[in-house]
Write a structure and sequence with these properties.
The protein is α+β, with helices and mostly antiparallel strands and 377 residues long. It is built from 11 helices and 9 strands.
């Protein structure tokens, strides 16, 4: 099987590498993370100018019409730079929902703005009791007479909503019928970030991103997709998001492996470089193998994420998430340990990559959750 990139994909890869090299030195990233919104609006505008925000969107709505492999190429390089702009939440997830279920009017209004960098989206799905179950939804939505049959009032809590503070609109899962864990009866809604009845508590996450806790009391929302059909929609788009973050994790692991290898070649102990010690050579080989296994599974899931067979698609997604969880933990731990005491410090970028890998493992289900899911499938 030919895994080489096309000419266009290689140009994309080169442009992201150049962006990371010029804009994402560790100290510059540290300043972005400490800013009010946690990222750079200038960087976001540049990403739009370079066409990255339009990459996966349909051509008829101002996009480029790329597929999962194109997104994979982009996300891997963003992972190498620990880029903090909300590409995953706005384009991969938000854009994915709009493409999969948006009405003609919603697509015409919102997708061109998303491609141009004029719209940011967030996805609110997690609740206190839900753990990793997307269908465990107690947030409720009731039809409202104020806006006709297309308007609902949403009430409830959502937690760890990434980039909600800077989003223009938030996609919320809420229950319109059924029991709290039923797949049937979940509907997705678009709400405005400044809507009446919405309160937000913002905070930084361990990996330097921003998230929010949302409390909703009669917030006006417009359905996105079929009423009661949100569960299948979330399975599809969250699967695409998992494929994307697997690629991001591979980028993080590559940097850790390369950085650690270079450190062992330059750090001298007992008069010889650490790279001359056989036991450390074995550990570096193990790190390399974990990176390559993670890369292989990422290629596989991005080739299968649009698979028509639901069971095969979900098996590929869970298998990749398990491998990414295992590999990310091993590579991160080894990198920190082999750097010695300074590997634990905030001044060295090794710890920042490990934090991001740890967060990726927990997003949309950790390795234990997906191992059980794979077995059930």
């Amino acid at each position: 099987m030919d895994f080489s990139l096309s000419e266009e994909q290689q140009l994309l890869k080169d442009s992201v590498q150049r962006f990371v090299r010029e804009e994402y030195e560790l100290e510059a990233r540290r300043k972005l993370v400490a800013s009010d919104i946690g990222y750079s609006e200038e960087h976001w505008a540049k990403m739009a100018e370079l066409g990255w925000l339009a990459l996966s969107l349909p051509e008829e709505y101002g996009g480029i019409g790329g597929g999962p492999v194109d997104t994979m190429v982009l996300m891997e390089e963003l992972g190498r730079g620990l880029v903090v702009e909300p590409y995953l939440t706005s384009v991969v997830i938000g854009g994915g929902f709009l493409m999969a279920a948006g009405s003609k009017e919603q697509k015409t209004e919102l997708l061109p703005k998303l491609a141009a960098g004029e719209l940011k989206l967030a996805f609110a799905y997690a609740e206190r009791q839900s753990r990793f179950d997307l269908n465990d939804v107690e947030c409720t939505a009731e039809a409202s007479a104020e806006g006709g049959g297309d308007s609902y009032k949403i009430s409830g809590h959502k937690g760890v909503v990434f980039h909600a503070a800077s989003a223009d609109k938030i996609i919320v899962s809420a229950r319109t019928s059924g029991g709290s864990r039923d797949a049937d009866g979940i509907t997705l809604f678009l709400i405005d970030n400044n809507a009446d009845g919405l309160s937000r508590r913002d905070y930084p996450t361990v990996d330097g991103l921003r998230a929010s806790e949302l409390e909703m009391d009669g917030v006006a929302g417009t359905p996105l997709g079929q009423v009661g059909g949100g569960a299948a929609l979330m399975d599809t788009v969250v699967g695409q998001a998992i494929a994307a973050i697997c690629a991001e994790a591979v980028g993080c692991m590559d940097v850790l492996q390369e950085t650690t290898n270079e450190y062992l070649k330059t750090r001298v102990q007992f008069g010889v470089p650490l790279s001359k010690f056989q036991v450390l050579q074995h550990r570096m080989v193990d790190m390399f193998m974990e990176c390559e296994q993670a890369r292989s599974m990422t290629y596989m899931v991005n080739l299968k994420v649009d698979e028509a067979d639901k069971v095969e698609r979900e098996k590929a997604i869970s298998a990749a998430k398990v491998q990414i969880g295992n590999s990310g933990r091993y590579v991160g731990q080894q990198s920190v340990q082999l750097h010695g005491g300074m590997g634990m410090t905030d001044e060295l970028h090794v710890g920042h990559y490990f934090k991001r890998l740890t967060m990726i493992d927990t997003m949309f289900g950790n390795k234990d959750h997906h191992l059980k899911r794979y077995a059930d499938l």
